[in-house]
Amino acid sequence: MQRKLILDSPLLDITINRLCQQLIENHGNFNDSVILGLQPRGVYLAELVHHTLEKETNNKIPLGYLDTTFHRDDFRRRDTPAKANATRVSFIIEDKNVVLIDDVLFTGRSVRAALDAMIAFGRPRKVELLVLINRKYTRELPIEADYIGRSVNTMESQRVLVEWKTQGHKTNKIWLINKELK
After folding, report:
1. Which residues form the Phosphoribosyltransferase domain (predicted)?
2. Which of 49, 118, 127, 177 is the most exposed place for a label (fewest CB within 10 A)?
């Protein structure tokens, strides 16, 4: 298995800070905006973004975790049942600007499922998507991110691995991994 480093910890910090500055430009102090991290891996990025935004804006910003398991179009097609993650949205998103956050945008199917799952909490005024890694040329649905940390040319035989310190890794890093062909 070959791996290539896409972002190391210092560059990742710079990227997250840049994304937060872009959000502040468009959302100000987040008075009418909320953040939803997509379970399972988007919540780590959402927490980092949330912490940085609250520090920069000196404002309390609602943060929730959204599970899309039962809204996915491939839910019933799996051989083994999918395990759901916790949805934690303790606020109404009715007429709010929602920033969906995920670590990697691949086919777009998770984001489509998130749009369906989100409606249970109200009808947002606007929805935007922030992703750390945009895998180019892999979209199956017409979904694009509004805020992108890094766009990466990938093949279907590759995958993006995001390692977070909060998951037990030594540092935050993002890798492009070539799967071994059998």
Report:
1. 6-163
2. 177
Does residue 5 sit within a domain? no
Per-residue pLDDT tens for 82-100?
Answer: 566 678 899 999 999 999 9
Contact 94, 142 (CB under 8 A): no
Residues 6+ apart with CB under 8 A from 8: 171, 173
Residue 123: how many CB atoms within 10 A of its CB? 11
177 found inside a domain: no
Show contacts of 54-62: CB within 8 Å, 24+ apart: 56/20, 56/21, 56/24, 57/24, 57/28, 57/29, 57/30, 58/29, 59/29, 59/30, 59/31, 61/30, 61/33, 61/34, 61/35, 62/34, 62/35, 62/90, 62/91
Residue 118, domain extent: 10-69+88-152
> Per this entry, what is the length of the chain?
182
Q: Assess if residue 57 is contained within a domain.
A: yes
Cα–Cα distance, 182 to 180 (Å, whole number): 6
